[in-house]
Amino acid sequence: MKLVGKYSAASALRWLLGFFNVFVMIGAVAAGVLLVASMIIGVDWMDALRDGATDPDGNYELTGRLTLLGAFLACGFTWWIINRLRRILLSVNQGDAFEFANVKRLQAVGFGLLGIQLTSLMLSIVAPQAIGQSASDYDFDLGSWLGILVVFILAEVFRQGAAMRDEQLTTV
Q: Which site from 21, 39, 53, 108 is most exposed, i.e. has the minimal number of CB atoms within 10 Å?
């Protein structure tokens, strides 16, 4: 199997990412609907996860809403990243890896990964409280933060590669 082009590994990966993106979108829509419903109706969706009894007044706690917001944001950032990666793979399959659009896409992936890490930090604080447990410690993962840095460095490499490619195309 070839790596780039039609019927390649990059095409299969692009298709697989598209398949996963459907489920990420379903999760984002579900979290968004639950969040909006909790604000409009005031239903406490976290009651089923708590060990205690339900709240008879139907007051929804702030931590429960923040947990749903975190789930929505995590799904949204994941959807954003997968879409940008699919567009990068499409341009690679077409033979235009070093184009300026891929620079912006890689930067968008970096910001999406940063958003996921910040959402993870928020969820590590509010999600346990939403289900009646004590707050857990945030697990600082150096590898994830270094991965974000690598993505931004690769975006700069792609920017310079795109500039060199454009310069080469204009040279006679």
A: 53
